[in-house]
Write a structure and sequence with these properties.
273 residues; alpha+beta; 52% helix; globular; DNA-binding
Length: 273
DNA sequence: GACCAGGTCATCA
DNA sequence: TGATGACATGGT
């Protein structure tokens, strides 16, 4: 299947550290699972080709997953009007925030804390292989509940093993709570997520942004902290909390999107830190 | 072989 | 309320 896409940058979207289950081959083709179906993706300018097994995925689910029907005109205006962000806009236009499945987002961002992206990907793959006999399919919460801390530590989770186990237990016991988090306000949803052990401000913001499309979330990790201090605080050592409040106030409902452009730009060296 | 990583938590002043 | 150190592990 081939679909026409506007304003979409597959590479920036998949390489920007928001999702950890895709691999890229030597020809630039990405492989991963979208809403339960294993697919291969390749973009050639405005054409996105999707190959899958059997009936594969529908165009609708691809458009949903990559948020392709979200008009980003306002985001682009915000980026262009900002002297610090204009060049990032020109380099990364088309980067979109994926509509990740909430459980996978929660699990992967619990794993992400104080960890390298390469290692997050590796741990995710270890979980897939151990519980799903697949390189890409991510285990459900109920699959992990029947496991134990020692097993998870052996898969590389380290001290995060009990955190993931606890989250899996909670989620598999009452999956309906995800609907509540989706429907309630950003503040309320965040405070509920932060009841999970291993979920603090930053992880909660990532889960809300990537798993629940709460675009006012502004996750502040070490890269965002460095970039924001340099660009908007004259290098002063302001706290993550101040940076988050500033980002949310400045960019409102596009704070999460701006954050993602900034993060990828900072990590890939577009911003000199 | 240090230092670091899409941080969180407990502890202490 | 804010500062500090421990935490597992492997990438750089």
């Amino acid at each position: 299947m081939e679909i026409k896409v506007e304003d979409f940058n597959l590479e920036a979207t998949l390489e920007s550290g928001q999702v950890f289950g895709f691999t890229k081959d030597s020809r630039g083709r990405y492989e991963g699972v979208i809403f339960g179906t294993l697919v291969q993706l390749y973009q050639d300018r405005e054409f996105l080709s999707i190959e899958g097994n059997g009936s594969a995925v529908s165009e609708h689910s691809i458009r949903t997953y990559f948020d392709l029907d979200h008009n980003l005109t306002i985001l682009y205006r915000l980026l262009c009007e900002d002297n610090h962000l204009r060049s990032i806009y020109h380099r990364l236009r088309g980067l979109r925030i994926i509509r990740q499945e909430p459980w996978e987002a929660l699990a992967c961002f619990i794993i992400s804390s104080n960890n390298h992206i390469k290692r997050i990907q590796r741990i995710r793959r270890n979980l897939s292989q151990a519980f799903c006999r697949s390189e890409f399919r991510f285990p459900e919460a109920c699959d992990l509940v029947s496991s134990d801390e020692r097993t998870l530590r052996e898969l590389g989770l380290g001290y995060r093993a009990p955190f993931l186990l606890s989250a899996a237990g909670y989620v598999s016991a009452s999956p309906v709570n995800f609907n509540h988090i989706r429907e309630t306000s950003y503040e309320q949803a965040k405070s509920e997520l932060m009841n999970f052990p291993g979920v603090g401000e930053k992880v909660a913001d990532c889960v809300l942004l990537f798993g629940f499309q709460k675009y006012e979330a502004f996750p502040v990790d070490i890269w965002i902290l460095r970039a924001m201090r340099k660009l908007y605080f004259r290098g002063r050592k302001v706290s993550g909390e101040k940076v988050r409040a500033y980002g949310q106030k400045r960019w409102g409902l596009y704070a999460g999107y701006v954050q993602q452009y900034l993060y990828y730009a900072a990590k890939s060296g577009m911003i000199k830190l």
